[in-house]
Structure formats: C-alpha cells, structure tokens
Design brief:
There is one protein chain. The chain has about 375 residues and is α/β, with parallel strands linked by helices. The chain folds into three domains: about 180 residues, Rossmann fold (3-Layer(aba) Sandwich); about 60 residues, Alpha-Beta Plaits (2-Layer Sandwich); about 35 residues. Helix content is about 40%, strand content about 15%. The chain contains twelve helices and 14 strands. The strands form five sheets. The protein has a six-stranded parallel sheet with strand order 2-1-4-6-7-8, sandwiched between helices. Strand 6, helix 4 and strand 7 form a beta-alpha-beta unit. Helix 1 packs parallel to helix 5. The protein starts with a strand and ends with a helix. It binds flavin mononucleotide (FMN) and iron/sulfur cluster (2 copies). One iron/sulfur cluster binds next to helix 7. Flavin mononucleotide binds next to helix 1 and strand 6.
Length: about 375
C-alpha cells in the first residue's frame, strides 16, 4: 500500500507512477484525515510506501498526525511488519532532513524501520513566496520530474535499500530550525476576494483538515489544524481565495493529474450527487496541445479508477487488477501446455476464476 498526501498533484503523480510499476495500491492521507479514518487492513510482509511534499524542509504536519494516529490491522493480530518500507518526498528544490525526521516518527510511533528514501524535484507550489513555474518552464520541470519518478519507481520495484534525496546544504541546516517551529500555522493570512468568489465550496471540499466553512456563501478559515498545503488557493476555479497580499497577482498551479478533478468527498458536502462520484470541474486552460493531451490522459486514468472503485474495490489501482488477470492467464496457459488433454473441453476446477483464453476459445470454435 502506498499512502500519499498531495495538494496540487505532484505527489499524486509520483504515487500513481510508482504504483503502476510496483503493482501496488494507493490511499489518500488527506481523505483519511478529512474523514478521521485511520484503520487500514494490511497483509504481513506487504510493501509500505509514503509519498508527500516537503514543507519548509520538513514533513507536512498532516503526515506527522497521520503517522501518530494510523492503525495497521493484520489478519493474525500481530504488529504489522512491512517487507519493504520507503518514502518519496516531492519538492521544488531540496528536502533538507525531512526524510530523517520522517524515519524517526515512523520508528517512534509505529516501530517500523525505513529501508529507503528518495526525493523528486518538480514544480514548487508555495505561491505566497513565489509564482509557481508556468508555460515552457513548467513543462520542462514536469518532464524532469517524470524522469526522476521513473528512476525511483524502478529502484522501489527492485527493493533497493538506498537513501538518495536532494538534501541541499542550506536545506539540511534550515530543517533543524523549521522542523518544530514552522508546524503551527495561523489562518489569518487567508482571505477571499468576494468579487471573484462564486460560492462553489470547492475550497471547503478540498481542505483535508476541515479548516474552511462557507458562511453566507463565502469561505471562512478557522481553527489551528491548517497544514498549509495551499490546496484551497490552487484549486479555487476563480482564483478568489488568497493568502496575504501577493497571491492575487500570481498564477495558480496544478499538476496535470489534478487539473480536472476534485476528490470524491467533495460532493458529500454539497449533498447533490453520489458521494462516490468524483466532481469534474471545467478549468480554463490555455489551448496548448500537449497540456490538453495530458489532461485527457489524466481524465481517462481517473475514470478508469472510478469505474474500478464502483465495482467495490476502492483501494485497488486498475493496473494491479490487469496484472493479476495476466498472471492468471499465464498460469492457465502453462497448465494447458503441461496437460494438453485438459484443453479438449474438460473443465478444470482450478480455472473457474481464470480469464478466458480468447485465442484458444476461438480456435476451438473454428474447428467445430
Ligand atoms: C508551505 C510550503 C512549503 C514548502 N517548502 C518547500 C521546501 O522547503 N523545499 C522545497 O523544495 N519545496 C517546498 N515546497 C514546494 C512543495 O514541496 C512542492 O511543490 C511539492 O511538490 C508539492 O506537492 P503536491 O503537488 O503533491 O502538493 C513547499 C510548498 C509549500 C506549500
Ligand atoms: S473555491 Fe473559490 S470560488 Fe469556490 S467558494 Fe472557495 S473561494 Fe469561492
Ligand atoms: S485551509 Fe487551505 S492550506 Fe490550510 S489545510 Fe485547508 S486547504 Fe490546506
């Protein structure tokens, strides 16, 4: 199982690519936190992965809380021991000692040892400090990130015991100051431009910590749970939600995998549609062919995932199912080669669940 947290999609893109290579399933820490759902069934010895962004050269507070609260339930009631445990941290430039802090937390609260740690350099989304890369610069950064993700995914598939992150000298020093102090965030800088806001409530739905509520049709930020992921800023379709004075002038950022989707729990808040149905938001995007095709691919992947979830396999990634079907097919063919007489219409008890060997069936039909 891969647990991920993502506000603007960089970590989601990484988690999905890793899951596709390692035939694993992914689960959203943001969704678990929003719903206070911390129990997960795990198989002894299965891989355990974590993918999330670095915040101020440290781990996001929401991830710290998740590690404290999560409960891995095993079939035999014994503490869960993963076969291989790794962390992948996405960043704009460097992660400092974030992986070391995460390692300490995991060992302290869950008694789990971290076997490997990686980082991916991608588009920085800290919009109150700088404008996230746009246009060609953004595409270049995403292409570079894609190459790094592929590399990391194959290391993970090979269960390599390595610690290779972009730590950075400044980052490594700065982490020691920010690790504790920077995790209590004030919601004061958040505000809404009431002329732009249409009261859609997307910011409420995407906030993983339930910090935002709608009052008289406009969002209000309250409490001290905010993890400063900035999802409420980047995912507002009207650029209406703001942080401080500078964000009004800056372009928002969304990784193509998140450019057109809002998490399924969005609709629970509005009570309009089926809670399992993702809500698609039409985004105003530049008529750029590559970007359009990225969004189209992302939509196809998302609808495949949704169709699969509707069949009752919520946490199963579609590729995992496809691979299982191929493995069954290979087993079935090997058995047919070993016992050729079985193929002449004699049904095989072991094969009741297996996939129909289409070419074989067509051959039999042809001979009849
Ligand atoms: C509050 C905040 C702090 C950040 N701090 C760092 C940092 O210390 N170093 C860095 O390289 N990137 C930093 N970033 C950038 C994100 O880590 C990076 O864009 C990440 O890929 C976002 O992941 P997501 O799209 O999955 O949310 C920060 C972003 C935010 C919002
Ligand atoms: S997402 Fe934007 S437009 Fe929608 S309610 Fe929130 S601030 Fe207003
Ligand atoms: S209020 Fe905004 S920045 Fe804070 S946790 Fe919610 S979505 Fe993230």
């Amino acid at each position: 199982m891969i647990f991920y947290f993502s506000a603007t999609g960089n970590s989601l893109a990484a988690a999905r690519s890793i899951a596709a290579v390692s035939k694993d399933t992914i689960s959203d820490i943001g969704h678990a936190t929003k719903c206070s759902a911390y129990n997960f069934f795990m198989q002894q010895g299965e891989n355990l992965g974590f993918v999330f962004p670095v915040y101020a050269w440290s781990t996001p507070r929401i991830v710290d809380e998740f590690i404290k609260k999560v409960h891995f339930i095993t079939g035999n009631g014994k503490p869960f021991v993963p076969g291989y445990c790794y962390v992948v941290i996405t960043c704009g430039s460097e992660v400092g000692s974030a992986a070391r802090f995460f390692e300490e937390e995991l060992s302290h609260y869950r008694s789990i040892r971290l076997d490997a740690s990686y980082s991916i350099q991608t588009v920085g989304n800290c919009i109150y400090l700088y404008e996230p890369a746009q246009g060609a610069k953004q595409e270049k950064a995403l292409a570079k990130a894609d190459r790094q993700i592929k590399d990391v995914a194959y290391h993970i598939d090979g269960k390599r015991m390595v610690h290779q992150e972009h730590r950075g000298t400044v980052g490594a020093i700065a982490s020691h100051f920010t690790n504790k102090s920077a995790k209590s965030y004030s919601v004061e800088p958040f505000h809404v431009d009431s002329e732009l806001c249409n009261g859609c409530g997307i910011c409420v739905a995407v906030c993983p910590t339930n910090t935002i509520s709608l009052r008289s049709g406009a969002p209000v930020w309250e409490g001290n749970e905010c993890t400063q992921c900035l999802a409420c800023i980047h995912r507002c379709p009207c650029n209406a939600s703001q942080f401080g004075k500078k964000t009004a002038r800056r372009s928002r950022y969304l990784n193509p995998v998140m450019a057109s989707v809002v998490t399924p729990h969005a609709s629970v808040r509005f009570g309009e549609e089926d809670p399992d149905e993702p809500v698609y938001i039409p985004m105003i995007v530049k008529k750029d062919k590559k970007r359009q095709s990225n969004i189209k691919n992302a939509r196809q992947r998302i609808s495949a995932f949704t169709a699969h979830a509707r069949r009752g396999k919520e946490h199963t990634y579609p590729y995992a199912d496809k691979t299982a079907a191929l493995q069954r097919l290979r087993r079935q063919n090997a058995r047919k080669r070993q016992f050729p007489e079985d193929t002449n219409g004699v049904s095989n008890a072991d094969d009741t669940n297996s996939v129909d060997n289409t070419s074989e069936t067509q051959k039999n039909k042809g001979t009849k």
